[in-house]
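re the bet — no i am not wrong, look at it urself. input seq straight from the record:
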Amino acid sequence: MYRRQCYTCGMVYRYQEWTDGVYNFDDHILLSLHLCLFLRNSLQTHQAVGRAIEVLERTSRKTYPSKTRILHAYLGFKALSDHDYTFACVSCGHNPVSVVMDLHKKGVFSMPVSNIEEPPQTFDGNVNIEHFGDKVSMEMISRGLVSSSKANPFLVRPNYHFWAPWIGPHTRRGSVVLNTEYQKVHSPYSAQEEVELTVTEDRLTDELVKLKMEAVRALCRQCGVDPKGSRLDLITRLQTEMKNRSSYDKVFSYIWGASGGWAVVTCPCAVVYAVKFNIRAESPRDYTDLLLSMKHFPNITLYDFARGLATYTNNREPRTFRPHDGRLLEPTISNIALASSGQIKVDLPWLALKKDIPDVNGHPVTGSAEHYALYDRFHEANTKDARDVLRRVDLIPQICGWLNSQSAEQLFAEMRRNNYFLNMMSPSSHFFLMRNILHHYNSIKNSATLQNMKKMLGVGVQIKLNSFGQTVLAETTGAQDPTNEGRDPTTAADEGQDPAFATDPHPNTATAKTPDLDLSVCGPDCWGLPHLRHLLARSAITESQVDYVLDTRRSGADIMGTVGNTTLARQDFQSLGLQEDLEASIANSCFQLICHMAWLKKKDVYAADAYVVATWHAPHFQDPFLNLPADAAEKDLLIFPVWKPGHWFLSLDCHTFGPWPLETCQKHGTVLLRTVMQL
């Protein structure tokens, strides 16, 4: 074994040459970088390090060192790797507008509660997250330098004053975050919280139904309830007994386990923003700690016990969830009745378009200082409080139907496959490895998102992150490689240049001379342009991107992007700017985008199918009314692409129907249809 020694003090330097592709753990166990990557991918597919090593042993028919020591070596390798643990989504940015929170109660670690050290009297609930993370990493590294864990000076034991969650550096408010778990033991519920929290008996009853028969019997014995009878009888007795606070606490602790599981905050894209490894059983306090530790409080918070969260948070920090204590409407009898019958909606336009004049302390993305605590779709029917109907997601038209309120549950469905090896680890190893697994999980999610964006936008379009950490189109002056500002911060440190930011390998050399025209206004001269330069005046499309798409020297079958279910190739776009007839697929895609933009402006617009409109002419003479929707009279605007041999025109101001003359007045490239039948 090679080594170096200081000629002054005699200190020995271990062999540690990364360029040789080897990681030296303790001078006895050396891991190749290829093996480390293999173990990382095994963990991401829910295979324990011990099982992966066993596969290698059977394949090579050789005996490997202790699987525990190899695990420690891998953890030391990851501690020395350059991970920033950003924990942010490239779509939602560093500060998400909407978050989904839940508890993975079966993700626990071995920890004698009686051995937890009491916090000092001066402890105020603030913990340095960077110091805590660095010390855990030092424990992983130093295992290769000491003979046993007892001799490790960096050993981290769970306690109330030095046990921190993990929140991404761009998302948290600073290096100091909140962890007030010690108050779970010493602080009773306030009178208002007591009233709110007792309703969770229904929630506990739902969890009781999931227990096996023997577990239900054992719980009955602990609570002093007769354990004889059917499963339904036992659950009914326990539900009655839970009216007693001590019995309630026993059931709560039995179901949620001793160590409390780990609480997560995700965005609707299922990217993890924060994770907290609870020492005690779950309570709204844990999620309040996470939310108050964020730089910007989310506008929409989804939780399976939203009322308890809003009550506790507002008692702790008044007017955090507002207005209406985090409800969407004032809890009046009329509002409750209308919401129950689905006859009322709550319009939050700043979810789609930022406020022109932001509120004081408003969210940087929306400009709003309103904070709502809502139920996820799975648990919104579990409450008996009539006022909770005003905490339903479907009351908000801007997010109803597309916001994934089950993102945390979907994460747990995948991560619970790791419980068999994570739950056997020490608390510090559990924290370190789970954080690393979630980091790579986020990186894979973000990489897939960027790949889908590239597929939709087409080749030659560059993507970067704006100041909020959200993906936007990059401004480029040619088909050259983008700068580092377009890299994904969650993967750049691990995997280098993300493939989603790959540029076109063939530089575009096509140039086109354009008449000296006023490009700020679209007029009759636009039809004579050799390409779509007139579209650049008010869009983020760059000249090089247009030249790339309209390059006749490239294959016309190359996919440029998708709109809805329509895939658009280069040959479709070439019909726009090469003085050719407009292809109907392009027209339909444009109208689909127009309808979507109108919907964001609260306008209901209908656009006719360009292929169908062509059948209204000779020789088919199809009835135009067959293509109209049943609610055409209620639309704000109807758009019809009108085709004449040689060109398409846009039909505007269609308020009437009847005869459909094709020979009508033309004005600046449009057709005005005026007929006699009033709609």
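see?? Residues 142 and 355 are 51 Å apart (CA to CA). told u. also The longest helix spans residues 427-457. so pay up
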